[in-house]
């Protein structure tokens, strides 16, 4: 007898209409985020999990129950799957008040019970007092809360959220994110969040699945994907811009370092034996592992992979300044880093200024060589 | 004023609407949400009465449902009377020539219901039937009502097809518009004027109502 698995297990494969090749697992109480470019198959995956679309091949089970087994001809309808689905546009029933929207998902209960349960959900999503309002009379954030309450009304076995914050302003977004974090503590469900906003994924998800062209490229905690992307495609999806090409020189077991030739630099990275000496590789360093040398007060830390160049671009973005360093004065080799505005000012980081940075060994990650243009425009 | 003609026209309009309501909802829904081979042809077929001269439509209806046609003979066997020059025949013709007036507004109304809303209903556990009653119909009702009002008004005013299929038999097929024509032929302009004014008023009220419903429908979906 197969072992009972309380989580959501998804395997999907198809060529048309959207190519998909994905394997996903989400445990109860876990929130995973599917990130990737628009049109990359994320929503298609969600729709297949919900039973709104049928894949060419696949198997989906949740809480030990098989929802989809193409080989055996089993495909439960959305009504049979017990899912909570928050649609991108919320898809509220515009002719029904907030509370009636929630009650619509409770038709299996006696009328009196519906009202008390819907009222409880209204309270849970902080909408007390707005029960009788129509969706058109609610703000974007309030509509999202109604959609969430409606999705949870049926006591689903999995909660699916498709770009739930895309239709609200930044302030509401921050508030809703916080509320979702709070809500998670109270529901023990597998939650799948589809987003193209990396911030949402980084802040909310326990694990991220990088999805491109319908394929799950890599999964891991947000930090794992930032620090150890499997390839350039994942690095691009994680918005890592410092991706370069280099050649492995040697592995040094004693100091637990791998040395890599890049331009005229010999960089020291943490030991990564899966790449052979002599192999040409891509390497990546997150901008948080690029440390600025203070121009007027040199320090010991500057010995770690020092790289020199000029400030090619310098853009103030809110409280931070995004700097593009043209390494060795060559605009073809751009290294990005972000510093606080006051750091940029104190170090006189204007366009054309000489600049030196250190690439921290622990941040340098090697990847198999791959063409540069893959997923570049994502 | 010919009260019998008015009564007959109202009866014809009522039964046309009653029969077309479920039929047009079904066809409108099918055309709104399904893609299938030959859809454009089906849509064109539904719209044909809009562009076809009523006499041509009437001619083909006589040909198809006349007493010598297969349908006509079967109908006569079943009911004891034929279709041509009877109220039943008139009703059948009325249903066919009103098809675009009923189907098209309903199709637009159903098209305006977002697919995601229907899918949300399914994800909430609503069956297809529950989704239809609780979600689709309330969201599309303005379009459905518009279609019925248009059909009703159009039936009251239809002349060519009615004359071809029903002729001009008092209390059986003599509708208001035919009575008006008859009165004018007899230079009885007073009676024709009263009946024409009645139809004019009804048409203006009906079309205004359709526009009001249209605004309301757009607001509902906003």
Structural features, described:
The complex is a heterodimer of chains A (378) and B (222). Chain A is an alpha+beta fold and 378 residues long. Helix content of chain A is 23%, strand content 33%. Chain A has helices spanning 42-50, 78-81, 98-103, 111-124, 140-153, 170-184, 198-204, 222-227, 232-237, 341-346, and strands at 8-14, 20-26, 31-35, 57-62, 65-69, 74-75, 83-86, 158-162, 191-195, 207-212, 215-220, 243-252, 257-262, 265-270, 280-284, 290-292, 306-317, 320-327, 334-340, 354-359, 365-368. In chain A, the strands form 4 sheets. A 6-stranded mixed β-sheet of chain A has the order 7-8-9-3-10-11, sandwiched between helices. A 5-stranded antiparallel β-sheet of chain A has the order 2-1-4-5-6, with helices on one face. The longest helix of chain A is centred in the middle third of the chain and has 15 residues, at 170-184. The relative contact order of chain A is 0.12. Chain B has 222 residues and is mostly helical. Chain B has one domain: MetI-like fold. At the A-B interface, strand 7 and helix 5 of A face helix 6 and helix 7 of B.
Share of residues in strands of chain B: under 5%
* Residue share in helix of chain B: over 70%
For the record, the CATH class of the largest domain in chain A is Alpha Beta
Average pLDDT metric of chain B: 86
- Rg from alpha-carbon coordinates of chain A: 25 Å
Largest sheet of chain B: none
Could you name the CATH homologous superfamily of chain B?
A: MetI-like
Unreliable parts of chain A:
373-378
Instruction: Count the DSSP helices of chain B.
Output: 10
Low-confidence regions of chain B: none
User: What's the count of strands of chain A?
Assistant: 21
Radius of gyration of chain B: 20 Å
Based on helices, strands and strand pairing, what is the structural class of chain A? alpha+beta
Report the principal-axis shape of chain A: globular
**Beginning-to-end CA distance, first to last residue of chain A:** 44 Å
Number of helices of chain A: 10
Can you give the helix content of chain A as a percent range? 10-25%
Number of strands of chain B: 0
Return the CATH topology of the largest domain in chain A.
Rossmann fold
């Amino acid at each position: 007898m197969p072992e009972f698995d309380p989580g959501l297990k998804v395997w999907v494969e198809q060529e048309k209409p959207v190519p998909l090749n994905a394997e996903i697992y989400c445990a109860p109480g876990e929130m995973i985020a599917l990130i990737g470019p628009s049109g990359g198959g994320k929503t298609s995956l969600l729709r297949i999990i919900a039973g709104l679309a049928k894949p060419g091949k696949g198997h989906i089970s949740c809480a030990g129950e098989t929802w989809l087994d193409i080989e055996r001809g089993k495909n439960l309808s959305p009504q049979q799957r017990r899912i909570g689905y928050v649609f991108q546009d919320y898809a509220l029933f515009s002719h029904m008040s907030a509370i009636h929207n929630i009650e619509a998902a409770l038709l299996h209960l006696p009328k009196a019970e519906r009202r008390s349960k819907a009222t409880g959900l209204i309270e849970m999503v902080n909408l007390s007092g707005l029960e009788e309002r129509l969706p058109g009379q609610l703000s974007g954030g309030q509509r999202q809360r109604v959609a969430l309450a409606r999705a949870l009304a049926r006591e689903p076995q999995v909660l699916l959220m498709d770009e739930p914050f895309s239709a609200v302003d930044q302030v509401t977004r921050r508030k809703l994110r916080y509320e979702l974090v709070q809500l998670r503590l109270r529901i023990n469900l597998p939650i799948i969040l589809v987003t193209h906003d990396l911030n949402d994924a980084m802040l909310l998800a326990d694990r991220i699945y990088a999805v491109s062209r319908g394929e799950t490229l890599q999964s891991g905690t947000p930090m794992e994907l930032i620090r150890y992307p499997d390839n350039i495609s994942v690095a691009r999806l994680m918005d890592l811009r410092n991706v370069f090409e280099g050649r492995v020189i040697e592995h040094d077991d004693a100091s637990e370092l791998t040395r890599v030739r890049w331009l005229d630099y010999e960089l020291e990275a943490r030991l990564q034996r899966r790449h052979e000496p002599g192999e040409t590789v891509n390497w990546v360093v997150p901008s948080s592992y690029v440390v600025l040398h203070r121009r007027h007060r040199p320090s010991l830390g500057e010995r770690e992979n020092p790289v020199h160049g000029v400030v090619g671009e310098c853009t103030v973005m809110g409280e931070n300044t995004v700097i593009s360093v043209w390494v060795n004065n060559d605009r073809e080799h751009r290294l990005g880093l972000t510093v606080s505005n006051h750091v940029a000012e104190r170090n006189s980081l204007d366009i054309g200024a000489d600049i030196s940075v250190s690439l921290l060994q622990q941040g340098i990650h090697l990847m198999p060589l791959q063409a540069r243009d893959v997923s570049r425009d994502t | 004023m010919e009260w019998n003609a008015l009564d007959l026209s109202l009866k014809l309009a009522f039964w046309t609407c009653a029969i077309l309501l479920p039929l047009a909802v079904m066809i409108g829904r099918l055309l709104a949400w399904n893609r299938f081979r030959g859809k454009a042809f089906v849509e064109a077929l539904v719209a044909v009465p809009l562009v076809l001269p009523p006499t041509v439509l009437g001619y083909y209806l006589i040909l198809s449902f006349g007493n010598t046609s297969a349908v006509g003979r079967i109908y006569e066997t079943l009911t004891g009377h034929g279709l041509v020059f009877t109220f039943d025949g008139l009703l059948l013709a009325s249903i066919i020539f009103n098809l675009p007036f009923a189907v098209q507004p309903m199709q637009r109304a159903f098209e305006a219901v977002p697919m995601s809303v229907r899918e949300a209903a399914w994800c909430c556990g609503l069956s297809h039937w529950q989704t239809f009653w609780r979600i689709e119909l309330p969201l599309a009702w303005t379009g459905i009502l518009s279609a019925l009002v248009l059909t009703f008004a159009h039936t009251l005013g239809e002349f060519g097809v009615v004359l071809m299929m029903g002729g001009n038999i008092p209390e059986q097929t003599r509708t208001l518009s035919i009575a008006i024509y008859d009165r004018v032929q007899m230079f009885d302009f007073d009676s024709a004027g009263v009946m024409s004014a009645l139809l004019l008023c009804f048409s203006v009220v009906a079309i205004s109502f359709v526009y009001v419903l249209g605004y309301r429908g757009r607001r509902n979906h906003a």
